[in-house]
């Protein structure tokens, strides 16, 4: 674990990422999001599908240019550096992709996939790279022979582990895990999550863990942020958030978590949300959740609520609080 | 089945895996080749292609006549034991001429396609990958090029440059590459949003590296289909130019030139048209069918 | 297509090959395709007809032509019943207008110099002024003064600068057809482009035309001799492939066709059996290869002669064309010099002799300081690639390479324009070419080889030849003239060869038995339909 | 929508300007000109008069400006080779034949090619599929000019089908029909083959889509499955290729037009190139290019109309 | 109780370039009217293929259904039914909701028409009436503003709405059986809850039997009456919800239940996880397919397939551990051992 526990390692300030999807249409995928991640910490990010989690993660990685706002790594703004410098930055932060099938180039061997980052950054000699590839393969629970194979010969879980090996190859300090488990089935999900936790313990990595499986997020994260339509609506330590959700959306979410226990599950009272998720294209002003919130007041559909610290360490964005 | 004590002993972890079926480590290409081999029709066309290529190389030497040796004693003779494919109006042996012609045609087809492929892939790759203004401008260039009558450009180049097959290929390529550039661009526009491309970006890859290492190899299937149609297209193109008298210059010849000569004497000496035409047909057919098979074999969706 | 409806009475309709005209403006065109149309739709003062196998000049638009005793003034009386297709009478002033328009450089007529060739008074001044780039007004004035005058509606007086033996023959040339000034004024540049807007004074009108597809001639009812025109309609299909023509002829879609190569022998065979008629004979086209006498070894007359001697023309034709007539001279059979046919008077002198050719070549090359013939490479400009030019190239290459051991490089051009350009610029060693006279006189076959002539593509220049040709053009005594041309031809072919004669073109046309009176004029267009009738179809 | 079309038209004008300029440059780079080179050498004064008349005596820059000026006015200029004919006349007289031929060929290509493609897709890896592959490749592996002549010899002059010719007059559609039969078929062959190919792969794509399974699960009948669910979705990619094809087939039919003696524009272009008829080449090129670009636009619009997912404006409502 | 559907010894294989993939290797089960049967299991274990086989949607070739398989719908064997009659079964007796709502609707047909199509096919209504009916169906599945929505194309719908449209199509003709193949995997929990409630409502209304294929145990716990656990083309255990959740007997079921993180587990504690991967269905092992990953595997497991052992009327398990000679094993999730 890191020794400077309280200093923010990554600072996201008023990050916005809009996509232009037509002449007059702007899709506000991430709209004014701010948070920090400490070194060695795991921040979970949950929310409805399409609410902007992936976009947020990729913008933090610098894979998308931010529309506005800052992403500070140790105080350096990622979006202000360009060209070669920026490419070098790739060594600090890496990403594990959502889809283990799409994120591996089908025409490259696993060895090449894993060593690509080292090739790009000219790390080590050929033999050293080879050695590192073998080490990584073993670290993620595969074996050496697998280096000369092609991705299509692997199962989803194995592929996801190749993706993890690729991210680890250039010794990053920070990894964005973009739903690394949602494409896998339960027994393999557990394998991957166990691995991530082990690596964090051993290497002191920092994670941004994106998922919509709330139980899994709770399991792995120190703190959890809840997103809704591009906004961060709640942010709190995981135990606190699950025990005591404040935002109406978070509440609904928590109540809807299906529990693998028929007695509990059938007895449980769910908050059923009315209506559909509005479109993120040209969203109306005001709280994004207002249209589905049964407590919504007039104010909610006019003014966008700020994310405020309601309790120590527990932030929420709602006019009702 | 006999059950005994031993049956219910625990397995050690090695024993568990002892008979787990591990697929043999087989490379992507070997895998594709294996699948191709299982497609009889593709294999037949491959054999036909190889035979055609061999004949184009060695065929003319199987007879004692030179392809341009005239013999006025045997004008327009039908196929016979002496002249397997007959002779033409100047008494030249058609077997030798056909295979010399096939050599030229195949050469034009292969080289033309190769050049076109290189230009088209890079151009299309750049258009597709960068998109935006770069794409807009580069695509206009293609649009302009494909609007100019092909003949004007070919004639112009044939006039300006020294005569020869090189010039001919160059002239054909200069307009031909736009098709493949379009195709590659379309493919790459789709592929560039793939996560593996983004993964490469995240690792700090430069754009050219991404295009060459990731994007182009993944368009291979479609490029091969295109190639299998393009090589014949070049053979035709040359035939068309030969019909207009712009093709290969005598005394050299090509399948196209032979067909266009044969067409003139169709009523009286049909074999002079029929033979070279059949050779073109067979080669083209083989290319097409083989290309079809190859695409199937390379298609990741068909992989197991 | 041809209807099968009229089995009973013979319908006077004909299907044959047609040609695209460049323009129907007689003053502007110079190509044989256009002349085929002009031949049938316009009438000139005289016309050439084939009578008993002989080309004779008959009066047509003229009723009477009076020549003054010094041979310098022609008074031409027009026939009074001649009418245009819009019913207006044909007037002498329309001839005058046409001829002056032809001569005026501002028209840009291809045959601008025609009246100069005919020695019409004042025309050479116009040419000189044009050459000197005089102003338009000045030139117009000179044009106005040339020796062509309409005395009244029916009398045209032409004054010549010197006697011209072939003047009356040349009057049949369709470029000299009358032109209606009112129509030209009305249509301006577009005159001649749209058949529907034209007026016709010949036996037929163009009633329908689709460029590249077909041209339909219809009998002109206002033509003065309309009662003797039997044919009502002729449809010309514009097709370039002779194989297609033959196919359509045999399939009954055409009544008349030409043929080439193997088709020709097949059709000849059938014609012998009486299935249809075979119309054949020599034509006025002479074909030869120009030597560029200013380049390389071809500067040497012996080398040139040697090459001329080496070619076995009959074999050459058998291999390449399977038709035409081998030529050993310059002028084809059937072209007149005065009232006599030149070729009948002057036999051809060149004889193929490979031995002599080899000897001459060795001598010639030695004179040029070359001992190894394989060092010699001759660039043979052939024009566009076609099965014919490819055949010629391959044959000639083989012949000379085998006979002399010299190299022949077949030089094809991408298109006709480049060929003509290179020919005019004399950018070749040897170049295929030919000449067809416009009217029935031998003179033009010779004039093209005079020093500096625009069509003298081989840069040929021989003082003696020049002076003989000049003398002959004004010589009124027929026999003396023939003698002069004989001498000139000997120089051109034998002594100081300018060309390698190869062949004369011929006529090989097949017509269905029911087609009568089909004529192929030697000069100008491809067919004359005025005598055609359908009998017993 | 309107805005989109306007924008496309704007880009189109720039493209056309480029094409016009490039053609101008190319043509002027060709050796030989329409006047200087003829079988018979023209008198110098005649040449000069003709040059002056067509403005060819002026420097290239002046000619370029004049040419563009005329283009803008819609005046495509005068032919040099065919005195008195304007390019506008030519297009008016000859476009109908080319267009009809082209459209008929495209129609035949669709009518024959699409069902073949569908058949091949449904019977994939059966003899029908191989039959279609062989047939379609044979169709394209016989060079167009040979095919045209073979057709002429096989069918011309028989059963009232003329070997060559055209009929523009009289009854515009039916009288001409017999003339169009052979050339349209000759032209259509390439289209049949490529339509069959594209249709096959696109049908295979669609068959494997989940929504086809949904339709089957609904118990939809075979015919309705093919027509309502498969065809509509499979035909989209074919539509995309159609535009350039239509434009291309008009320019591309030069050989067929020549062989069948059809008064069309393709043959005209070939002619004009051979004779260096400057104005005609340039104007026809620009005209063809315009046709091409417009057809691309039309196809894009059609595509958007057929496929509800595509909005030409790109934005949501 | 009436056995609405009975599947007997279903075997499905696919012929591929690589060889014969034995996707389903002898599955037997039944379904009663009005009940919900959940099928759970690793991805690729044959859940979807089983449901497709019931509807007769396996393409042959490449698919192949073994001759001795039977699928009886109220006594008649669907596998022997001619295609024409099968079409009448589809959509009216049995209908199916597919895995992916994004791609399972025809993109070039309006939603209304897609629903109406089934109604025209099976209820013989004319088009206009069927369309009205379709709008009613849309209302029934809680799509607001149904009249306008019916005129829209699938791409104009959100994921949840598309899934509801799919349900509307499936229920349009009041089928006796609804096969729901992972109907909510693509949706997030709040929408998922909505959809599951909807299915439950409709089921109560029409007495529809539901086969729910999913690997979300939470959902299963919520809605299922009976559960069937599949592994590698076989059913390894089946029972009522309570039997499976509280008294599972098969090591695979144990693993499945254990590896799901619970909200009450300790943060970042090691989750239970299975090592290895499922066997290749190209050459399935002769013994128990789970043997290679099973903690308790014995020699016999590799040699022979275990027979099904009846634990109760409704509870069956196929495992050698149930053999009287087998060593006793403690159930790691704390259900009662044996009995
Ligand atoms: N490149 C892009 N162009 C346009 N819109 C995009 C792009 N990428 C994402 N979006 C849109 O931005 C919104 C947020 O997408 P994002 O992928 O970040 O969601 P997510 O929270 O990761 O969802 P999921 O849980 O489904 O992965 C979505 O509406 C999506 O359609
Ligand atoms: N068309 C096909 N061709 C070849 N193999 C197939 C085909 N369809 C399915 N399979 C194979 O059959 C097996 C079972 O597939 P199935 O789709 O039933 O799995 P599933 O249990 O539904 O998995 P998931 O939870 O991922 O949907 C898999 O191994 C799959 O590869
Ligand atoms: Mg995402
Ligand atoms: Mg499935």
From TrEMBL, chain A:
Species annotation: Inconstantimicrobium porci
Protein name: ATP-binding cassette domain-containing protein
Domain ABC transporter: 10-254
Translocase among keywords: no
Coiled-coil region: none
PANTHER family noted in UniProt: D,D-DIPEPTIDE TRANSPORT ATP-BINDING PROTEIN DDPF-RELATED (PTHR43776:SF7), TRANSPORT ATP-BINDING PROTEIN (PTHR43776)
InterPro entries: AAA+_ATPase, ABC_transp_ATP-bind, ABC_transporter-like_ATP-bd, ABC_transporter-like_CS, Oligopep_ABC_C, P-loop_NTPase
Stored Pfam families: ABC_tran, oligo_HPY
TrEMBL record, chain B:
UniProt KW Transport keyword: yes
One example of a Gene Ontology biological process annotation: transmembrane transport
InterPro entries in the cross-refs: BP-dependent_transpt_permease, MetI-like, MetI-like_sf, OppC_N
UniProt cross-references to SUPFAM superfamilies, sorted A to Z: MetI-like
Domain ABC transmembrane type-1: 102-291
UniProt similarity note: Belongs to the binding-protein-dependent transport system permease family.
Name of the protein described by the UniProt record: ABC transporter permease
Species per Swiss-Prot/TrEMBL record: Inconstantimicrobium porci
TrEMBL record, chain D:
Locations listed in the record: Cell membrane
Species of origin: Inconstantimicrobium porci
Matches recorded under InterPro entries: BPD_transp_1_N, MetI-like, MetI-like_sf
Species classification: Bacteria, Bacillati, Bacillota, Clostridia, Eubacteriales
Membrane topology: Multi-pass membrane protein
Pfam hit, one: BPD_transp_1
Transmembrane regions listed in the UniProt entry: 9-30, 101-122, 134-155, 175-193, 234-260, 280-306
Domain of life of the source: Bacteria
GO-annotated cellular components: plasma membrane
Residues of the ABC transmembrane type-1 domain: 95-299
Protein name (database record): ABC transporter permease
Stored Gene3D superfamilies: MetI-like (1.10.3720.10)
GO BP terms: transmembrane transport
Keywords: Cell membrane, Membrane, Transmembrane, Transmembrane helix, Transport
Family recorded in the similarity comment: Belongs to the binding-protein-dependent transport system permease family.
CDD domains named among the record's database cross-references: TM_PBP2
TrEMBL record, chain E:
Location in the cell: Cell membrane
GO BP annotations, alphabetical order: peptide transport
GO cellular component labels: plasma membrane
Keywords, alphabetical: ATP-binding, Cell membrane, Membrane, Nucleotide-binding, Transport
Membrane topology category: Peripheral membrane protein
Residue ranges of domain ABC transporter in the record: 5-257
Pfam family of the protein (one): ABC_tran
Keyword presence, ATP-binding: yes
Main localization of the protein described in the UniProt heading: membrane
NCBIfam families with a match to the protein in the record: oligo_HPY
Protein name per Swiss-Prot or TrEMBL: ABC transporter ATP-binding protein
Lineage start: Bacteria, Bacillati, Bacillota, Clostridia, Eubacteriales
């Amino acid at each position: 674990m890191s020794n400077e526990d309280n200093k923010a390692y990554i600072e996201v300030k008023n990050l916005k990422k809009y996509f232009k999807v037509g002449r007059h249409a702007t899709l506000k995928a991430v709209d004014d999001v701010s948070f920090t991640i400490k070194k060695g910490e795991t921040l979970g990010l949950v929310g409805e599908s399409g609410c902007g989690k992936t976009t947020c993660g990729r913008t933090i990685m610098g894979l998308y240019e931010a529309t506005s706002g800052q992403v500070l790594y140790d105080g350096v703004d990622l979006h202000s550096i360009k060209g070669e410098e920026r490419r070098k930055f790739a060594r600090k932060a890496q990403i594990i992709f959502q889809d283990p099938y799409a994120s591996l180039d089908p025409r490259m061997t696993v060895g090449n996939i894993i060593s690509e980052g080292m090739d790009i950054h000219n790390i080590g000699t050929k033999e050293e790279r080879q050695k590192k590839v073998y080490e990584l393969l073993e670290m993620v629970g595969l074996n050496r022979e697998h280096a000369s194979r092609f991705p299509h010969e692997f199962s989803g879980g194995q592929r996801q582990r190749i993706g993890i090996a690729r991210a680890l190859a250039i010794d990053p300090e920070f990894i964005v895990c973009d739903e690394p488990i949602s494409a896998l089935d339960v027994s393999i999900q557990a394998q991957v999550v166990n691995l991530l936790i082990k690596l964090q313990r051993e290497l002191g990595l920092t994670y941004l863990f994106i998922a919509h499986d709330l139980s899994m997020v709770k399991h792995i994260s120190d703190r959890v942020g809840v997103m809704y339509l591009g906004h961060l609506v709640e942010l709190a330590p995981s135990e606190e958030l699950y025990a005591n959700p404040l935002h109406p959306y978070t509440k609904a979410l928590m109540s809807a978590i299906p529990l693998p226990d028929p007695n509990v599950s059938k007895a449980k009272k769910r908050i059923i949300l009315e209506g559909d998720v509005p479109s993120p294209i040209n969203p109306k002003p005001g709280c994004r959740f207002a249209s589905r919130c049964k407590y919504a007041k007039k104010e909610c559909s006019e003014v966008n609520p700020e994310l405020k610290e309601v309790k120590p360490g527990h932030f929420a964005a709602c006019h009702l609080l | 089945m006999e059950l005994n004590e031993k049956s219910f002993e625990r397995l050690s972890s090695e024993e568990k895996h002892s008979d787990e079926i591990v697929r043999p480590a087989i490379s992507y290409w070997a895998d594709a080749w294996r699948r191709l081999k299982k497609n009889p029709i593709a294999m037949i066309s491959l054999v036909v292609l190889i035979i055609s290529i061999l004949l184009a190389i060695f065929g003319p030497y199987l007879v004692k006549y030179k392809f341009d040796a005239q013999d006025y004693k045997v004008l327009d003779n039908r196929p016979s034991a002496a002249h397997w494919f007959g002779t033409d109006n100047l008494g030249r042996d058609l077997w030798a001429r056909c295979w010399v012609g096939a050599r030229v045609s195949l050469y034009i087809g292969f080289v033309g396609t190769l050049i076109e492929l290189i230009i088209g892939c890079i151009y299309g790759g750049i258009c597709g990958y960068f998109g935006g203004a770069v794409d807009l401008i580069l695509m206009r260039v293609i649009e302009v090029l494909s609007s100019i009558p092909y003949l004007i450009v070919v004639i112009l180049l044939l006039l300006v440059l020294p005569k020869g097959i090189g010039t001919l290929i160059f002239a054909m390529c200069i307009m031909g590459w736009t098709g493949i550039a379009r195709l590659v661009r379309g493919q790459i526009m789709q592929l560039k949003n793939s996560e593996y491309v983004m993964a490469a970006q995240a690792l700090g890859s430069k754009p050219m590296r991404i295009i060459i290492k990731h994007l182009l190899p993944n368009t291979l299937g479609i490029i091969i289909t295109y190639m299998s149609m393009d090589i014949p297209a070049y053979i035709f193109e040359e035939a068309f130019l030969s019909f207009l008298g712009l093709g290969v210059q005598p005394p050299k010849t090509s399948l196209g030139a032979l067909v266009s000569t044969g067409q003139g004497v169709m009523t009286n000496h049909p074999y002079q048209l029929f033979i070279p035409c059949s050779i073109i047909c067979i080669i083209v057919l083989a290319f097409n069918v083989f290309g079809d098979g190859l695409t199937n074999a390379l298609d990741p969706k068909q992989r197991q | 297509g041809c209807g099968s409806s009229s089995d009973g009475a013979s319908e006077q309709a004909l299907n044959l090959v047609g040609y695209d005209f460049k323009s129907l403006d007689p003053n502007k065109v110079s190509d044989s395709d256009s002349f085929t149309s002009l031949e049938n739709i316009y009438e000139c003062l005289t016309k050439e007809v084939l009578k008993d196998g002989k080309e004779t000049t008959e009066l047509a638009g003229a009723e009477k032509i009076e020549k003054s005793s010094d041979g310098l003034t022609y008074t031409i009386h027009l026939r009074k019943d001649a009418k245009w297709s819009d019913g207006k009478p044909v007037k002498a002033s329309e001839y005058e207008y046409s001829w002056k328009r032809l001569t005026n450089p501002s028209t840009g007529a291809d045959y601008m110099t025609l009246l100069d060739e005919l020695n019409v008074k004042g025309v050479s001044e116009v040419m000189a002024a044009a050459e000197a780039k005089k102003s338009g007004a000045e030139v117009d004035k000179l044009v106005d003064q040339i020796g062509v005058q309409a005395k009244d509606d029916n009398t045209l007086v032409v004054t010549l600068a010197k006697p011209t033996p072939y003047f009356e023959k040349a009057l049949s040339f369709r470029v000299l057809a009358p032109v209606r000034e009112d129509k030209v004024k009305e249509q301006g540049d577009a005159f001649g482009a749209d058949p529907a807007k034209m007026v016709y004074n010949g036996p037929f009108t163009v009633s329908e035309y689709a460029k590249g597809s077909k041209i339909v001639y219809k009998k002109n009812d206002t033509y003065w001799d309309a009662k003797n025109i039997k044919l009502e309609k002729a449809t010309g299909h514009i097709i370039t492939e002779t194989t297609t023509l033959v196919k359509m002829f045999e399939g009954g879609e055409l009544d008349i066709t030409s043929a080439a190569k193997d088709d020709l022998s097949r059709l000849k065979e059938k014609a012998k059996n009486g299935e249809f008629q075979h119309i054949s004979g020599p034509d006025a086209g002479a074909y030869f290869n120009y030597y560029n006498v200013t380049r390389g070894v071809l500067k040497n007359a012996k080398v040139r002669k040697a090459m001329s001697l080496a070619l076995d023309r009959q074999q050459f034709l058998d291999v390449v064309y399977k038709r035409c007539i081998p030529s050993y001279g310059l002028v084809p059979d059937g072209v007149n010099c005065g009232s006599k046919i030149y070729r009948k008077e002057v036999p051809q002198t060149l004889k193929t002799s490979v031995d002599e050719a080899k000897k001459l070549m060795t001598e010639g090359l030695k004179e040029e300081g070359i001992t190894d013939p394989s060092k010699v490479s001759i660039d043979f400009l052939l024009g566009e690639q076609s099965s014919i030019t490819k055949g010629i190239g391959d044959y000639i290459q083989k012949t000379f390479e085998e006979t002399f051991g010299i190299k022949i490089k077949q030089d094809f051009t991408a298109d006709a324009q480049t060929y003509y350009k290179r020919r005019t610029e004399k950018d070749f060693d040897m170049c295929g070419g030919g000449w067809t006279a416009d009217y029935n006189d031998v003179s033009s076959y010779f004039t093209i080889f005079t020093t500096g002539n625009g069509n003298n593509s081989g840069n040929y220049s021989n003082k003696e030849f020049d002076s003989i040709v000049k003398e002959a053009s004004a010589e009124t005594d027929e026999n003396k003239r023939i003698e002069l041309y004989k001498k000139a031809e000997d120089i051109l072919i034998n002594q100081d060869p300018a060309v390698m004669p190869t062949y004369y073109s011929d006529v090989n046309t097949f017509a269905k038995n029911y087609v009568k009176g089909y004529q192929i004029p030697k000069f100008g267009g491809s067919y004359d339909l005025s005598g055609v009738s359908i009998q017993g179809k | 929508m309107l805005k989109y079309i306007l924008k496309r038209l704007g880009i189109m004008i720039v493209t056309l300007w480029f094409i016009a300029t490039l053609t101008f440059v190319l043509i002027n780079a060709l050796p030989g000109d329409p006047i200087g080179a003829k079988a018979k050498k023209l008198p110098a004064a005649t040449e000069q008069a003709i040059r002056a008349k067509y403005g060819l005596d002026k420097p290239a820059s002046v000619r370029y400006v004049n040419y563009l000026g005329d283009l803008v006015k819609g005046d495509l200029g005068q032919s040099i080779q065919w005195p008195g004919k304007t390019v506008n006349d030519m297009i008016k007289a000859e476009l109908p034949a080319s267009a009809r031929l082209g459209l008929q060929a495209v129609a035949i290509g669709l009518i024959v090619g699409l069902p073949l493609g569908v058949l091949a897709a449904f019977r994939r890896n059966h003899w029908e599929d191989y039959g279609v592959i062989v047939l379609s490749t044979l169709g394209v592996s016989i060079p167009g000019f040979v095919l045209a002549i073979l057709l002429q010899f096989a069918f011309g002059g028989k059963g009232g089908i003329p070997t060559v010719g055209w009929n523009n007059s009289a009854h515009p559609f039916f009288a001409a029909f017999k003339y169009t039969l052979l050339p349209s078929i000759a032209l259509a062959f390439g289209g049949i083959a490529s339509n069959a190919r594209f249709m096959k792969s696109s049908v295979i794509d669609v068959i494997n889509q989940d929504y086809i399974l949904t339709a089957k699960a609904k118990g939809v009948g075979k015919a309705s499955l093919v027509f309502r669910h498969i065809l509509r979705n499979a035909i989209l990619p074919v539509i995309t290729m159609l535009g350039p094809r239509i434009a291309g087939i008009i320019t591309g039919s030069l050989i067929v037009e020549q062989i069948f003696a059809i008064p069309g524009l393709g043959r005209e272009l070939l002619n004009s190139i051979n004779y260096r008829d400057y104005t005609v080449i340039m104007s026809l090129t620009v005209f063809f290019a315009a046709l091409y670009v417009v057809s691309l636009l039309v196809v894009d619009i059609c595509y958007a109309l057929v496929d509800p997912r595509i909005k030409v404006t790109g934005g949501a409502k | 109780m009436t056995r609405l559907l009975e599947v007997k010894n279903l075997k499905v294989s696919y012929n591929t370039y690589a060889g014969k993939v034995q996707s389903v290797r002898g599955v037997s089960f039944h379904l009663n009217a009005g009940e919900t049967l959940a099928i759970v299991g690793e991805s690729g274990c044959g859940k979807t293929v089983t449901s497709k086989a019931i509807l007769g949607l396996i393409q042959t070739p490449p698919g192949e259904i073994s001759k001795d398989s039977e699928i009886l719908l109220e006594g008649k064997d669907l596998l022997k039914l001619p295609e024409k009659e099968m079409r009448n079964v589809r959509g009216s007796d049995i209908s199916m909701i597919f895995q992916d709502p994004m791609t399972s609707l025809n993109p070039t047909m309006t939603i209304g028409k897609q629903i109406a199509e089934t109604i025209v096919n099976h209820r013989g209504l004319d088009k206009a009436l069927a369309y009205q009916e379709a709008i009613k169906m849309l209302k029934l599945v809680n799509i607001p503003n149904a009249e306008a929505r019916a005129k829209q194309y699938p791409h104009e719908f959100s994921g949840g709405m598309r899934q509801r449209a799919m349900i509307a199509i499936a229920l349009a003709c009041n089928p006796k059986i609804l096969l729901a193949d992972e109907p909510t995997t693509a949706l997030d929990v709040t929408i998922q809850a909505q959809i599951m409630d909807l299915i439950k409502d409709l089921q109560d209304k029409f007495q529809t039997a539901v086969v729910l294929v999913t690997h979300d145990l939470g959902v299963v716990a919520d809605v299922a009456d009976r559960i069937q656990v599949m592994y590698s083309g076989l059913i390894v255990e089946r029972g009522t919800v309570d039997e499976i959740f509280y008294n599972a007997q098969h090591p695979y079921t144990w693993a499945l239940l254990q590896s799901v993180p619970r909200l009450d587990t300790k943060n970042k504690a090691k989750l239970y996880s299975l090592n290895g991967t499922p066997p290749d269905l190209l050459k399935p092992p002769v013994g128990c397919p789970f043997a290679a990953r099973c903690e308790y595997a014995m020699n016999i497991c590799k040699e022979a397939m275990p027979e099904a052992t009846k634990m109760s009327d409704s509870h069956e398990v196929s495992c050698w551990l149930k053999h009287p000679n087998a060593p006793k094993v403690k159930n790691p999730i704390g259900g009662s051992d044996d009995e």
